[in-house]
Amino acid sequence: METYKAELWKLRVCDSVLAMTHGFYKEIKEIYIPEEHISINSVDGILHCFVTDPSRYEDSNSKPEKLGEFEIDGETVQATIEYLESKKLLEQWISECVIEGGTYDGVTPQTLLSKKHKFE
């Protein structure tokens, strides 16, 4: 079974610029999968999964601290990649069809997620 190297980090995050300027932050733990540039964390019980730049872990403001390394199975990483692809399609649909008021006959979140529709 294929595995990926993963890193566990501790870093500080802020809810807003105002919070940051006043020194209000939360310390979180975050998993980083370097090969795919994917970060996963949970803040206030909300899961965050996103593609990130490695420089996130060099930012002196967030005071990153590498806590360790471990292996993560390939199935989990592939499921995470599929989740991010689906999320991107859904965000695009919301932006183009809902927020901008566009209409796309037959395009729904379900058709996007089933990959039956591709935006040009």
What is the strand and helix layout of this fold?
Elements: E1 3-13, H1 17-21, E2 26-33, E3 38-43, E4 46-51, E5 65-73, H2 74-99, H3 109-113
Antiparallel strand pairs: 1-2, 1-5, 2-3, 3-4
Structure notes:
With 120 residues, this protein is an alpha+beta fold. The chain is flat, with a radius of gyration of 18 Å. It has helices at 17-21, 74-99, 109-113, and strands spanning 3-13, 26-33, 38-43, 46-51, 65-73. It folds into 2 domains: 3-73, no CATH class; 77-113, no CATH class. The model has no long low-confidence stretch (mean pLDDT 84). A 5-stranded antiparallel β-sheet has the order 4-3-2-1-5.
Q: Keywords, please?
A:
single chain; 120 residues; alpha+beta; five-stranded antiparallel beta sheet; 3 helices
User: What class would the helix/strand composition place it in?
Assistant: alpha+beta
Distance between the termini: 35 Å
Strand numbers in spatial order across the main sheet = 4-3-2-1-5
Uncertain runs are: none
Mean pLDDT: 84
What is this entry, summarized?
The protein is of the alpha+beta class and 120 residues long. 30% of the residues lie in helices and 33% in strands.
